[in-house]
Amino acid sequence: VEILSPSTRSKDMVDKLNTFMISGVKEFWIIDPEQEIVLVYGFKDLDLDHFMTYRKQDTVRSYWFTDLEVAGTAIFST
Length: 78
What we know:
By secondary structure, the protein is an alpha+beta fold. It is built from 2 helices and 6 strands. Helix content is 23%, strand content 40%. A hairpin with a 2-residue loop joins strand 3 (37-44) and strand 4. It is flat.
């Protein structure tokens, strides 16, 4: 899970995403506190297999762990 900050936003969204994907990481969540969204990337065979955007009012669900879910309201304060 990566929480975006204004100073490293582009690095986190491009460089880290690519690094994690080619390193064998299975899933990567990016939390954007400014827009109150969570981006969930699922990787398979060192390639992007899944992408989903969740908003504050949604339930964020893991791609690989079927029982893992988090209320968006639990991630972002009101």
